[in-house]
TrEMBL record:
Organism: Polycladomyces abyssicola
Transmembrane domains' residue ranges: 36-53, 60-79, 85-103, 115-134, 140-162, 182-206, 218-237
InterPro entries per the UniProt record, alphabetical: YwiC (IPR025576)
Protein name: Membrane protein
Superkingdom of origin organism: Bacteria
Pfam families reported for this sequence: YwiC
């Protein structure tokens, strides 16, 4: 039976980058491997169920159930170590319910759906941080805030080179958002974090509105995510 695995580059980046960021900003521990395993397989399970909703093919439910079981077994020890992780469950369920709503309306590419997904992925990063430190603090809040700010910008960029490439209004909004992303840390008194958003702004001005392949866009986003994680860790720890 053919494996059921997401093929979107952006989804994989959103899955891994916030979690890695939260782990590095907190206190990495061996159990983070189990927590990431749960995060990874629950993501695969949600994708499989979403595909079943769209196509009604039994194999999606089979794979979704298998992924969910592995994720469930993986998260048992982290939940026992840090029961506070249960607090994230309502948010994850709500975000996924919204995603399914858009899927049933055949509007899964809607900007609101993307933003809701980003909120879920950003919360995953906070979960990794809280699991390592055992506390909710200002770092957890800023981790969530800047992750959302960054990834909404990636949505603007990816749409500007694929689906909205010929839409001049979209490009205006994308450039405005990217510019405001650079200004936001300055306004909030965290000027050094503005550096994190310089490359995304340059990237948009160079490639925004240009015809590039999804693979090229994925490579650009991968490089962008690397600098986001690396710079954010360095600048928030300094």
């Amino acid at each position: 039976m053919k494996w059921v695995i997401p093929h979107e580059h952006g989804g994989w980046v959103m899955l891994t980058a916030p979690f890695l960021l939260g782990t590095l900003l907190g206190q990495p521990r061996p159990e983070h491997l189990l927590l990431f395993s749960a995060w990874f397989f629950f993501y695969l399970a949600s994708y499989a169920v979403t595909q079943w909703v769209k196509r009604k093919e039994k194999r999606y439910l089979v794979w979704g159930s298998a992924y969910w079981l592995i994720g469930f077994l993986s998260v048992l020890l982290p939940l026992w170590k840090e029961p506070v992780l249960w607090l994230f469950a309502p948010l994850f369920c709500t975000v996924y319910a919204i995603n399914l709503y858009f899927v049933t309306r055949r509007r899964e590419r809607a900007m609101l759906n993307d933003i809701c997904a980003i909120l879920g992925f950003a919360a995953g990063g906070v979960a990794a941080y809280v699991f390592g430190t055992g506390k909710w603090d200002a770092t957890a809040f800023w981790l969530f805030f800047y992750t959302v700010l960054y990834f909404v910008g990636t949505v603007f960029f990816v749409k500007s080179v694929i689906r909205e490439r010929k839409n001049p209004h979209w490009m205006k909004y994308a450039k405005l958002y990217s510019s405001l992303s650079v200004l936001m840390p300055l306004i909030l008194g965290q000027a050094k974090l503005a550096l994190v958003f310089i490359f995304p702004l340059i990237r948009l001005w160079i490639w925004g509105g240009k015809e590039i392949t999804p693979k090229q866009a994925g490579i650009i986003e991968f490089a962008n995510a690397l600098q986001f994680v690396a710079l954010t860790v360095v600048l928030m720890v300094m």
